[in-house]
């Protein structure tokens, strides 16, 4: 993989990230860390812009996710289970993603991008559930950006030590996902609280304004 990315740069990052989101279990941690290290000039003399590497990763994720969504939407569970083995899709991985989607609905597409296994396969149950394509694309993009950018920046920062960071990412990725999920819940709760407070503070629309007493008008 390192050789492929070193030789083909941004295009390789795009293709590999697209495959990863299309349910081919290629670790995005390794792809983006190598891409970031390549942008830092730690692997080859010629190096692309870090911004381009991150954009390629995000766009690849979104394209691959739509491919998986379409397979789930138009192929259904039977096709996935019949042909999934050809892309190393294991039955329990699909079931795990389906349970995650069933419990959390559309928001699972956003938060699931931070979870190992789930982020690779979450597009399938979203397609099976006929999640609207526009909403799916928005949630997918918002979920891909922080994870992809963080990995690319980490690879850029550590340079030729990217492999050590990649090995260390597997465990903490659960922690990162949990922290992000809690943060999203807190932000949503605060938003709802502020809206309720604002609604309570506003005067009721259409409420008649009391007339001044006649004595005050005569003064």
Topology record:
Elements: H1 2-21, H2 28-39, H3 50-83, H4 91-104, H5 107-111, H6 118-121, H7 123-128, H8 133-158, H9 162-169, H10 172-201, H11 214-218
Cα-based radius of gyration, to the nearest Å: 24 Å
* Strand-residue proportion: under 5%
Low-pLDDT parts are: 174-184, 214-219
Number of helices: 11
Secondary-structure content class: mainly alpha
Q: Tell me the number of strands.
A: 0
Task: Give the proportion of residues in helices.
Answer: over 70%
Instruction: Report the biggest beta sheet as strand number plus sense, adding barrel if it closes.
Output: none
Key attributes of the depicted protein:
0% strand, 219 residues, globular, mainly alpha, 11 helices, disordered C terminus, 75% helix
Structural features, described:
The protein is mainly α. The chain has one domain (2-170). The chain has 11 helices and no strands. It has helices spanning 2-21, 28-39, 50-83, 91-104, 107-111, 118-121, 123-128, 133-158, 162-169, 172-201, 214-218. The longest helix has 34 residues, at 50-83. The protein is globular, with a radius of gyration of 24 Å. The termini are far apart. Residues 174-184 and 214-219 have low confidence and may be disordered.
């Amino acid at each position: 993989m390192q050789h492929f990315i070193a030789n083909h740069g941004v295009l390789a990052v795009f293709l590999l990230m697209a495959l990863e989101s299309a349910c081919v279990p290629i670790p995005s941690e390794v792809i983006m860390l190598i891409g970031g290290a390549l942008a830092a000039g730690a692997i080859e003399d010629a190096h692309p812009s870090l911004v381009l590497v991150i954009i390629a990763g995000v766009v690849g994720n979104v394209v691959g996710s739509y491919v998986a969504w379409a397979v789930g939407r138009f192929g259904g569970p039977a096709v996935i289970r019949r042909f999934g083995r050809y892309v190393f899709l294991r039955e329990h991985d699909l079931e795990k993603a389906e349970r995650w989607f069933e419990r959390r609905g559309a928001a699972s597409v956003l938060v699931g991008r931070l979870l190992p296994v789930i982020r690779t396969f979450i597009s399938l149950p979203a397609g099976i559930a006929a999640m609207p394509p526009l909403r799916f694309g928005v949630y997918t993009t918002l979920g891909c950006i922080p994870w992809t950018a963080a990995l690319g920046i980490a690879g850029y920062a550590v340079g030729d030590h990217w492999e050590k960071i990649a090995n260390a990412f597997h465990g903490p990725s659960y922690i990162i996902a949990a922290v992000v999920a809690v943060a999203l819940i807190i932000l949503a709760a605060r938003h709802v609280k502020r809206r309720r407070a604002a609604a309570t503070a506003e005067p009721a629309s259409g409420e008649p304004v009391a007339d001044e007493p006649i004595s005050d008008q005569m003064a």
